Amino acid sequence: MKSFVLIVSAVFVCVGCSGGHRVVSLPDTHGAQHVPLAAHGDEVVVLLFSSPDCPIANAIAPEIERLHQLTLAGGGRFYLVHARRDVTAGGAAAHAREFGITATVLLDREQTLVQIMDATVTPELVVLAAAQDGTLRTTYQGRINNLYASLGNRRDRATKHWGRDAISKTLNGERVDPPYRQPLGCFLEQNQ
Hints:
The protein is an alpha/beta fold. It has a single domain, classed as Glutaredoxin (3-Layer(aba) Sandwich). Helix content is about 25%, strand content about 25%. It has five helices and twelve strands. The strands form four sheets. It has a six-stranded mixed sheet with strand order 5-4-3-7-8-11. A two-stranded antiparallel ribbon has the order 1-2. A two-stranded antiparallel ribbon has the order 6-12. Strand 9 and strand 10 form a beta hairpin.
């Protein structure tokens, strides 16, 4: 089981800093910049690492949209994150339209968020809560549901909804247990 705390200031995240700070700002499919790890008050931030050609991620697209709407209803921010250099803004936008995903889609071509969150597969969910000291802490990371029992072994429907539970509990200030579930999906190749 992983246990970790992510320290994030309200303005920037220091990644590979040497004498300065690097702002983690990523473009969406329209070119607007977002700072997904900036803590604002007591809000919840949800990152869902995905890939347009991962059949597991595509199979749970309706659940991704449900998670997005659940997060919005609770006053949080939800980002679908594509972390491959070959995913274009146009391709990511077309994919979101095709699969009915209305969340903000970020392009993490340099895999900054992948490295910070230690994401390994798509789909992989990360739920973060803002603490009173202005930091974000990970409340949950891992699988979204059990639609797939294992690679290539798909159920007719999911019977466990760990992503929904994690977001709901985090929005309500409750503890998520367990805070980590081994994600199941398409391997997220690291940039070289």
